[in-house]
Amino acid sequence: MSALLAAAILGVLLDRLLGEPVRWHPLVGFGRWVQFLEQRLNQPHSIAKGALAWCLAVLPLTLVVYGLVQLPWFGWAFSVLCLYLCLGGQSLVAHAKPIAVALQQGNLPLARELVGRIVSRDTSQLDEQGIAKATVESVLENGSDAVFAALFWFLLLGAPGVVLYRLSNTLDAMWGYRTPRFLLFGRVAARMDDVLNYLPARLVALSYSLCGNLSRGLHCWQTQAAAWDSPNAGPVMAAGAGALELQLGGAAVYHGKLTERPPLGIGDASRAEDILRALQLVRRSLVLWSLLLVLLWGASHA
Q: How does it sit in the membrane (predicted)?
């Protein structure tokens, strides 16, 4: 347990210091493999083929990682590397902060282009509030997925756990859409992501509340999350919106269709500076988790 905690602390530090690898990121190669599987197996009305594709994409790599971490000395270092590659804390900053800067400079076309890279909604007609809201929602949700859930599964099952989670989460981002192409084929990917994120999402909702406006974060989580379609994004974004004292949710255009989403949070509409506040909330929550890790590591040596 002590070695696992030390690996977790080092993995978080590496993400903070180095950020996401610019070249040769393993997830790029994984994305190509996933596209190949989808082209070969995606057939209309075939949940079974989607389940097979999920297994072929996730399980072999997870088993390889399980075998490698059993090796003396190398296994521990490899575990640290796996966690570092699966964490996306600095990547979140690298994608969201330029949007805030573009908005502050009044460059709406650039802000729309940048936010379009991190959200699936149509961004071509968004104003400053719409861009800021979309970015804040992405920061809160992806903070949960790419940082805290990855750390949770690493602490629970080590490197195989974080790799299984990260690959599954990536499949949900690629296949988990309610479109004719993915409605059935991507159902297993979407449900597996729901299961793997269930506990981490609630820990994140609590963390966001503790690191922001506690009473509003908890209130919005308790009263608004259930109305959201996603069982995990609802608690995370409701608590985050309340903690930041912002209004999120509402109408958005997805795949050419206007979708009326339940309102989240309480307070003012989002502005450029709220993107930076959302990043600070994620960072404070990560500091909270890191302090707990250090305390647990210290207790294991007492």
A: Multi-pass membrane protein
